[in-house]
Amino acid sequence: MKKIRSLFNVFITLVMFTSIFWTSVPKSYAQESEGWSTPFNLSESGSATNPVMVVDFRGTIHSIWMEGADEYKYSQSTDGEIWSSPVTVAFPFGHKDPTPILLSDANGSIHIFWTSSTDLFYGQATPLEIADPKKWAVNTLLSHDVLAFDVTIDSRNSLNLAYVRKTSTSRNPAGVYYRRSIAGGGSWLEARILYKSEYFRSITTSDAYVRVTTAHMKPNSNNERIYVTWDNRPQKRVYMAVSDDSGLTWGDVQPMKSPEDTGGSDTPFNLTAAAFGSNLLLVWQVGEPGSSKCTVYSQWSVDGGKSWGDTLAVLGGRSECPVSTKIIEHTEKYMSIMLTGQVTPILIAWNGEKWSSTQTQIQFPSFSNPLTYDVVFLGCRFDLIYQQRLYSAGCDQAKGHDVWFLSLPLEPIESWFAPSVVWGEPIVLPIKSETPQRISDFYSTSDTAGNIHVAWVQSPIELNGGENIEIGYARWNGREWTTTPASVVALNGKPISLLLAVDSLKRLFLSWVDSYSGDLLFSWANLEKANLYSEWREATSLPSPSQLVNSSDVLVDASGRIVCVYVIPVNENRGVYVVQSTDNGESWSTPIRVFDAVAASWEEVERPRISLDSDGNLHLVFTRDTVRDGQTVGLYYSRSVDGGVTWSDIQVLSEGEVQWADIVSYGERNVHIVWQEYDGLIFANVSQVSKDGGITWGKQNNVTSVNETATQVSLASDGKGLLHFVQLVNKNNVAAYNQKGLVLQDWKWDETGWSLDLTKDILIKGENINYSLSSSITSTGYLGVFLPIEYTDPVEGTKSEVLAFSRYLTNEGVTTLDLQPPSIPTPINMPNENQASNIQPTPTSDLLVLYEDNVPTSPLQRNLAGIVLIVIGIAATVFLLVRRQSAK
Question: What is the pTM of this model?
Fold first, then answer.
């Protein structure tokens, strides 16, 4: 009994020590996707693909998929959770045929349409007989030589079919045809040709596109208005035909879009219509059919297409190109569509005035096979919506090769028009150039009008002698790009350390370092015309005792006073310097050396970041670097209470190897510093807060979990205490060829600590993938995250682009943010023409002693100390136990 009690004591001691340690360890990342049902393996065979589904009039889900290379399987479920055992069915469509189209009507019938060797067939079954084709009520041939078709059921329960015929005969020329069955598929009227074109004889199935939609005209009328839309891609044109009497007669074919509407270079394609009463919505794409990027456009008519409203970009600009467009619902208030994506579909709705936010929660969650623990990557996705629920099936493209089923409840369409609090799909910055461009040194900042201004360095990928390097500019309103990207500043050398700042007079300030000359340069333009090259002032050089400047930071106070801090990292003038201007950069004060790295015997100084608090005090952080291994490194802080004339002695915040740092001020006297450090084993993101203007500092906080490698991070602040820390981490267990899986993590500060607020999976396809990160918060409450990426496409070579993500911070209680900065009360003395250029500051008293816990011990070191305590505690307990047993 004593031995058991002793062992129990050992166990309790171990638990106590372990609990002490783990309370200090940051929580690790775990992928969560609320709302999706538990994934269900439909096939459990390892050789399944191409699922298709239909929901019958009673709500039963019927699923069909291909098994192996020569047979089909069938299963059904009444609730999406419990499925019948799969059975093999000899369906009339073969394994080489395209997947069939299944429709269910209100009378209980399931309609099956399929093509086999380009012949179009139709079958009709009850829900009980769908798995027994021999008992189908109808099985008939509708047409020969069909390239593409579409079918819909109207309000009178009639079937409306449109298709593209490839071959020509004297009776049936190549073209677009329409057929109707008023008996619910029991019999079909003769096919009617709507449009003839010999061009269809030369195209393939992938180039053929046709859609049909219907609208009930009047409550007491039996007539349906029918719209058929199609593409003629060899001629770069899309067309529409309309019938006002249920398909008996048709008006003249209307050419809707052509090269004249796209500037002549792009092709309009995938024309789709949605209608209700006299309201008609057209959606089409512009670009190159089959490419990865295009622009989705729309037009709206309230009189059945007699007149049209403005053309709108559905997704805000050039984006991932959908494979096709499906109409989900068309009512008096809303028309919702599904853009079938190359990876993930996009749900979006139109309310007659504007497009809703995209419903991005429909992206498949990350999950693993519960039997093998292998990560499941779902492709060949099939989606349908029934009673505000999304049913999805996909085939595992990794190791499992099974078909999985998931479902997701959808929010009411009304809520789609509220600003989205989840991450939207990325919008690509539409940079246009005759040659492939490399994007670097991307930077973003916010103004008070709800915009984010971005700038970047743009250079030809095949750079020849340093020519044609430009600084590009664009503007983002939180949801879309609102200006065409433009080159705004002429350059003599390649710029680095690009920075932007906005003042209260709506001016945009731009600074950068010329990497060839080492000069720190400055220019500005009015905000509304910042996309015009002619509006930017000629660049001026800031005063510096050396031409070795390689990094800087800039801020503007409420009066328009510009404060620029920069470092000379090496050689005899190395240190941190501050210069200021009160006349838009026309003249600058003499440089004040904030920190003398020579006198301090530092080998190198880097990464200055500066902020301004509500009292007009300046706060500064910078890093100590080394050119030799084993030398002291770290992060240091200093402050100025007299407008930057004198500065406090530096305080050490960390003695780790700092990879990145930022500082923000907000509230009464809050100063918040965030950095990423490496302790020789792992990388951690850490923050520290002062609530008295930098005089004393609280303990360090873990922002995120630790990582084995350095990660791209960014800090977004509204200047009033709203802080979001954005991090990109490699997705666990993703090892696919020619692609990189990332997780965008958004961490939120709540005045006491950091918590993971939201995540989004990102997949970048290509080789040699490189990326960076920038983020800002608009005055209207949107968090914008910008991801410049560069990769090698196997066909197109090296490519570079910028992805923009955004979400609305409603959970922060944001309405309209005030981004107006405070003012610096202390005036500055501008230099005379012959004034010396190296003014030494008068340091204030050392504030280090006032920091109650200023020993530079990071959370990493504290965790290592916890491990040591555990080992010591266990060893001591075991030693006492053994000694006691020996004594007996």
Answer: 0.64
